[in-house]
Amino acid sequence: MLASDEGGVTAESEWVAVDWGTSNLRVWGIGRGGHVLFSRTSAQGMATLAPDAYPRVLADILAPDVAPAGKPLDALICGMAGARQGWMEAPYLDAPADLATLAAAAVTAPVPGGRLRARILPGVCQRGDGAEDVMRGEETQLLGLSTLVPHFSGIVCMPGTHCKWVVLSGRRVERFATVMTGELFDVLRAHSVLRHACTGAGQGPDHALGFKSGLAAGGDAPQRLPAMLFKVRAGALLSARTPDWCAGYLSGLLIGAEIGAQREWFGRGDLAVVGSAGLVELYGAAMAREGKQPLIVDGHAASLAGLLAARQEARG
Amino acid sequence: MLASDEGGVTAESEWVAVDWGTSNLRVWGIGRGGHVLFSRTSAQGMATLAPDAYPRVLADILAPDVAPAGKPLDALICGMAGARQGWMEAPYLDAPADLATLAAAAVTAPVPGGRLRARILPGVCQRGDGAEDVMRGEETQLLGLSTLVPHFSGIVCMPGTHCKWVVLSGRRVERFATVMTGELFDVLRAHSVLRHACTGAGQGPDHALGFKSGLAAGGDAPQRLPAMLFKVRAGALLSARTPDWCAGYLSGLLIGAEIGAQREWFGRGDLAVVGSAGLVELYGAAMAREGKQPLIVDGHAASLAGLLAARQEARG
């Protein structure tokens, strides 16, 4: 819903919160007192954009909200727009990192015309031989989580293409690791020999059975993941496993192996899963198998809360 | 070299041995006493062929050796030509499988014209919920190994796109497992975010350093493979790792994790690695790190020895 639909008033947003990821762009118009006036999404994520396209895309999606004169509209941006191959590089904060300093480290990205003022929040990196890791966007969700759940102290699992596991104490990111579960699923299903078996729609009772079976196999012996992947193909050839079962098994195997390998991370206080509805359900099932009952937080809600908190930090 | 180049005599082969894999076709002309008269290769592997193309491709590559009249030329074939999506399905033998029975289970594939008689050897499968596995071509190499190394009893590691680990006692395949190391390397390097980092040529001192580092990381904690893959990307971003280093690290990480996860297989008598020159060198280095000194056998030599042994079985 656009604010302009309600009473013909344009440009009533005080500022806009922007989550600009690899695949999607999401903006929220924020009014007085931090109220969300509207949200809009677009498929114009980083992966589809050349660096010089960002100002136009942002101006287009915010066109109804930009006043022709007066104070420019502030846009506070998190995510891959700040990557080297994005709009403008926002240098990483080093972990351990205090997320209260995110806003202070933001960079200003130029928008021609002077009606928009865009600031991009940094990501967080971890240095050291063999410990190297990076995140962009998740740091803002973590700041959001620390606002939504004050005094959170423990492990945050953030499933996605590149799943992040984070040790978070309040607003401090102690350390983190990226697990490529989502991307492994995508490339194996699209490009490997398993594509012949995994043509299922990703739902239904056979999918659920396959997922459960894969979860057990991966969770019980995560080190054997590369040796169990081929069971998807062999199961289709020899045991007449259906495409739905195979897709479910592959998904369960990968998530099970991820959770199984990260067992050492558990038992450090709180446990949260932050992500999209579909993924948090799958990871919740995997963690229940470990006897864990994580706090579930919607990924978009965490991003928004983080951008709100960063805006507050920026303004003191 | 064609036999016909030496003295103008055509069709002196008694029969031809054929290894017809996914990517390549390789034929050997066999003369009296099992001597190899010639070998030829072509890129017309199963992946490039429709079922009805096989007879023509085989007739073409063997044209100089097929006599216009008299006894038809026998071709004994192993590999993916016998898969369901190949020329003609040669049903699997079930493991535990006696490889002395391979020839008896071969199927006859039709070749129009009657100047060629083609027989395709079966693969071996392993049934049972969660134990499902298949091989095609490797069973013939295993029969070859049992001929080249009489009384071999132990573990055979057969690196490739789909690496096979086999418990072999003489000519008996006890059990086996497929590890998708080669295909994981291929799809990650071609289709994942790691493609940005792994543009190296796969050689040089940086490649060797990366391989060694990856081998240690994967071998020490194979269960953490999905969490270590991203280090390739993060190492390039944060520690200025070169494309050669990254490609070497990815290769070492995958092979190290494979060997590390298969540790339970070691210590069962003999140990052999059967494969191409490049791969057996990498796997040999990985096994040396485990204190193992495997017997190294060239993959083509094993295929040829297996086809010779199967021909002998077929003729009693």
Low-confidence stretches of chain A: 1-10
Q: What fraction of residues of chain A sit in β-strands?
A: 15-25%
What oligomeric state do the depicted chains represent?
Answer: homodimer
Tell me the strand order in the biggest sheet of chain A: 3-2-1-4-8-7
Query: Largest interface, by Cβ-Cβ below 8 angstroms: which chains and how many residues each?
Result: A-B, 47 and 47 residues
Mean pLDDT across residues of chain A? 93
CATH superfamily of the largest domain in chain A: 2-keto-3-deoxy-galactonokinase, C-terminal domain
Name the helicity range of chain A: 25-40%
Intertermini distance of chain A: 30 Å
CATH topology-level name of the largest domain in chain A:
Nucleotidyltransferase, domain 5
Computed structural class of chain A? alpha/beta
Helix and strand sequence of chain A: EEEHEEEEEEEHEEEHHHHHEHEH
Q: What's the number of helices of chain A? A: 9
Large-scale geometry of chain A: globular
Topology (SSEs and partners):
The structure is a homodimer of 316-residue chains.
Chain A: E1 15-20, E2 25-30, E3 36-42, H1 54-61, E4 73-79, E5 93-94, E6 97-98, E7 107-109, E8 116-120, E9 124-126, E10 133-135, H2 138-148, E11 153-158, E12 163-169, E13 172-179, H3 181-191, H4 204-220, H5 225-228, H6 230-239, H7 243-261, E14 270-275, H8 277-288, E15 295-298, H9 299-314
Parallel strand pairs in A: 1-4, 4-8, 5-9, 11-14, 14-15
Antiparallel strand pairs in A: 1-2, 2-3, 6-13, 7-8, 9-10, 11-12, 12-13
Helix pairs in contact in A: 2-9, 3-7, 4-7, 6-7, 7-8
